[in-house]
Structures are given as structure tokens and as C-alpha cells.
Amino acid sequence: MNTNDDKNVSIKQQVKNNLIAIVSIVIAITSLAYNTWRNEQTEFNRNVRTSSFQILMSLAELQLLVDTAFYNENGKNVDPIKGWRHILYIQDLSPTVSIEVKANADDLHNTWSEHWQLMAEQETSNKQINYAIEKNRQLVLMTLQELK
Questions:
Q1: Which pLDDT score is estimated for 3?
Q2: Transmembrane ranges (predicted)?
């Protein structure tokens, strides 16, 4: 029975003697885990920001094309086919921002598909496209504000 007490004392004594080393290891592991998580979060945020800025620029160019087609007297000379480039680019980047932005990009694609041919002549088509562009823009801006 004496040997068990010696073992217990010895384990307790060893923990006590090595407490600084044990605490150091726990702190090191915790710090490594946090640093890894923080780096992954930073990279994710960087990707979302880059994609968001590209989407916002493409939305602005699409808005300019739509406004020029409808409001400019030379709007009939605007090639609305160029809008497809922006629509597809937005759709390609949207999954890297969020699921909501992806869904809105799909809605923009559908709206563009339905209204692009009449956007220069019909105010309702023009307004539908403008609404879809603005909705996307607001959601991308909101996503950027929510980044950690």
C-alpha cells in the first residue's frame, strides 16, 4: 500500500514540478489553434472583399449600359449584348461572396434574360433591370459591412 501512495505522490509531485511546462503547452496549442482560425478567416474575408469589389464594378458598368440605352438619345446605338458579359461575370463571382448574393445574381440573370431586348424602349423593362441591379448592389454592400 505504501508503493501506491508513493506513485500517487510521485504523479502529483511530477505535475506540480512540471506545471509551468504543462501550462506553456496548453497556451501554445491554444495560440496555434486561434492563429490558424484567424488566418483562415482573414483569407476568407479577403476573397469576399475582392469578389465584392469586382461585382460592384461590374454592376456599375451594367447600370451605365442600361441608363445609356434608355436615357441617351444615342441609346439605340448601345449594344445590349455587352451586358451579358457583366451578367455572366457577376454570376461567376457571386458564389465566392455568399449564398444570398449568388441567389440575387441568378435573379439578375433571369431579369436580364427577360428584359434586355426592350430595355431601351420600354420603361418597365428598364425599371426591372435597374431594380435587380440595385438589389444586388445593396446586398453586396451589406455583405461587406458584415465581414469580421
A1: 58
A2: 20-37
